[in-house]
TrEMBL record:
It is found in: Cytoplasm. GO terms for biological process: porphyrin-containing compound biosynthetic process. InterPro entries: Aldolase_TIM, Coproporphyrinogen-III_oxidase, Elp3/MiaA/NifB-like_rSAM, HemN_C, HemW-like, rSAM, rSAM_sf. This is Heme chaperone HemW. GO terms for cellular component: cytoplasm. NCBIfam families: hemN_rel. Residues 6-236 form the Radical SAM core domain. Keywords: 4Fe-4S, Chaperone, Cytoplasm, Heme, Iron, Iron-sulfur, Metal-binding, S-adenosyl-L-methionine. Probably acts as a heme chaperone, transferring heme to an unknown acceptor. Binds one molecule of heme per monomer, possibly covalently. Binds 1 [4Fe-4S] cluster. The cluster is coordinated with 3 cysteines and an exchangeable S-adenosyl-L-methionine. It comes from Spiroplasma cantharicola. Belongs to the anaerobic coproporphyrinogen-III oxidase family. HemW subfamily.
Length: 370
């Protein structure tokens, strides 16, 4: 007799959120708190993460990447770092595993880098934001460019081969000259990967609460950043992500865009999971020691839109030969054909992707898919 039991997709990647920061930057509305004086709060938080991971039972057996993000994961002390890595070590012993952690320049130490190495962390992402010291102060960062460069060199010296840098543009009174200077520093450092985000003014950030607005230079800066990085030899593979070589693309980031399932653990973390055949967006809501996973059921249309919206952010687009994407492509067949006629989408090597013109107006294209 045939069984009707639904077999859900196993979870492909895992995000772990560490919400503590030494200092709160003015533009940021990510879930974070000032690092508590009492170390027990962090220890209890790590206990809670351990329990949350256990609640997934064997559903995390197949994860191919882990990303420890924040907040500021590097602000944990050595003992807490070791505890965090020990909790996660259950999920990491696989071939071709990508294991990333986010660091801030001011809390990078050789001792902590050695702990990350010992636990097989193989990718570092460090938030620098800009190399302009005046601008760094204005946006509320507590590092300067010399500390950032020192931390970067220490990371490389410790033997990390895959190092990414986060930068932002369209910041405050940033000028074309600031961008050119940032590109000069990148030319020297040549990180393996760069995420360069345009500032999004978030209501709940320090700036958002003061009702500050984003400067109106967006398009100009987009062009400077894209052309500047291209000239340095970077491959743009997503709206804000650039890799030095094709092996430096972030597998974990790609899992958010290519219809993979992912779990988010820790306060504020989000996930995308299939449970009994249905798709859910998850979010951990509450406060640091008392949060709960909320599940938002996606209708079939919401699920299809989610995949189109995320997939078209990638330069390569959506692999339409994959079984998991076939029903989505069928559902949008008419709209896709219309956009191909308008030279906004194209199909190349079995991938549905934006044309160069389409990529610049992705939000407008997506409205028509709603
Ligand atoms: C939330 S932070 C966490 C990592 C680390 N604490 C740091 O400060 O780099 C991750 C990255 O998000 C980006 N980011 C944060 N707030 C942003 C905003 N309002 N608009 C655009 N990018 C932002 C920054 O580039 C930052 O490096
Ligand atoms: S940008 Fe990073 S360091 Fe600054 S407040 Fe946000 S999470 Fe913390």
């Amino acid at each position: 007799m045939r069984s009707n039991k639904i077999i859900d997709r196993k979870i492909n990647s895992l995000y772990v959120h560490i919400p503590f920061c030494e200092h709160i930057c003015f533009y940021c509305d990510f879930v974070k708190v000032k690092k508590p004086q009492d170390p027990q709060v962090i220890e209890k938080y790590l206990d809670k993460i351990e329990l949350e991971l256990e609640s997934y039972k064997n559903r995390l057996d197949d994860v191919q990447s882990i990303y420890i993000g924040g907040g500021t994961p590097s602000c944990l002390n050595e003992e807490q770092t070791t505890r965090m890595c020990t909790i996660l070590s259950k999920y990491t012993n696989k071939e071709n595993f990508e294991y990333s952690i986010e660091l801030n320049p001011e809390s990078v130490t050789i001792e902590k880098l050695n702990i990350y190495k010992k636990f097989n962390i193989n990718r570092i992402s460090m938030g620098i934001q800009t190399f302009d010291n005046e601008l760094l102060k204005k946006i509320g960062r507590i590092h300067d460019n010399s500390l950032a460069i020192k931390a970067y060199k220490l990371i490389k010296k410790a033997g990390f081969k895959n190092v990414s840098i986060d930068l932002m543009y369209n910041l405050y009174d940033q000028t074309k000259k600031n961008i050119a200077t940032d590109l000069e520093y990148l030319k020297d450092l040549k990180p393996d990967h760069i995420s360069w985000y345009s500032l999004i003014m978030k209501e709940k950030s320090v700036w958002g609460r003061k009702n500050m607005k984003v400067p109106e230079n967006d398009e100009l800066f987009d062009e400077l950043v894209n052309q500047g990085l291209k000239d340095l030899g970077y491959i743009r593979y997503e709206i804000s992500n650039y890799a030095l070589g094709k092996d430096n693309k972030s597998l974990h980031n790609i899992s958010y865009w290519n219809n993979s399932t992912f779990a988010g653990v820790g306060i504020g973390a989000t996930g995308f999971e299939q449970i009994e055949g249905k798709y859910y967006l998850t979010k951990n809501e509450g406060n640091i020691l008392n949060y709960k996973k909320e599940f938002e059921l996606l209708s079939q249309e919401d699920y299809f839109f989610q995949i189109i919206m995320m997939g078209l952010r990638m330069v390569e687009g959506i692999d339409i030969s994959l079984e998991k994407n076939k029903d989505i492509i069928d559902f949008y067949q008419e709209k896709i054909q219309e956009k191909i006629k308008q030279n906004l989408l194209e199909i190349v090597n079995n991938n549905l992707r934006c044309t160069e013109r389409g990529f610049n107006i992705l939000n407008e294209i997506l409205i028509d898919f709603l």
